[in-house]
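Input sequence (303 aa), recorded before submission:
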Amino acid sequence: MNWDVVGVGASCVAHVCRLPAFPEPGGVRAKLRVQSQNRACGGQMATALATCARLGLRTAYLGVVGDDDDGRRIRLELAERGISADHMVVRSSPTATATILIDPTGDRIVLWQRDADLSYPPAELPLDVITSARLLHVDDVDEPAAIEAARLARGAGIPVTCDIDHVTPGTEALLPFISHPVFAEAATLELTGEVDQERALRRLRIRLRHAGRLVVTLGDQGALALDGDVLLAVPAFRVSTVDTTGAGDVFRGGYIYAILNGWPVATAIRFANAAAAVSCTKQGAMGGVPALPEIEALLQIQA
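Predicted structure, token format:
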């Protein structure tokens, strides 16, 4: 089987709580009544792949879940979304979980738990699956597997995208294998010690010896890209925000779709911004994944 996108990384089941405000210790907000709550599947990689699948791409997931109800729930959710989990690893450890707190503006706080046993053994990564892909996507949660998968993909001439959400001891080892880096806002600054995003991207250009696009997502400010020596600022779309959970993962799924279509950088990032914006108008990470007509409608309305 040939895949458009193979992803290596995190999935989880999240307990989502909507609150009247974020808690604050020692004051009137130290104890809050939950307005609503639900459980849903999510995780950086699962949500990005769900976006790719919703956009019509053939996707496969390489990750680890527990042999419990949450693990079975994730496997079922992936299957229902058309994401192959044939090479998913099942462990006796509990499946990764998250508790997500959402305030009335749609902003969120994420508390997560992932057992160390939920790491994909790098030596067991299926080479034939990775090399059958048009693109490999990795995140920064299961870094040993991400590094090895990216190394295998680049060795086979396959482009690699990434979700660098925060800096870890493995970040420096992973980045040389990434052909289309996408960083979260804080990661570029932490990697470089800069306080300005343009300076951070230009410093990363030299440090990584990377001649391609470097992209950083900026939440409601959109995204920045350094394409060659040209800095491109692409603003976010204006929407009524319900839930920002998973917006960054949806951005990456939209960006992957654009890369595989060979779009110019400005078009690619604008499309990814629109995908993320649509996801913010819905509840949930995977639940907020947009369809192509929804993205195209927003692009047309805010042309």
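Checked by second reader. The longest strand covers residues 12-18.
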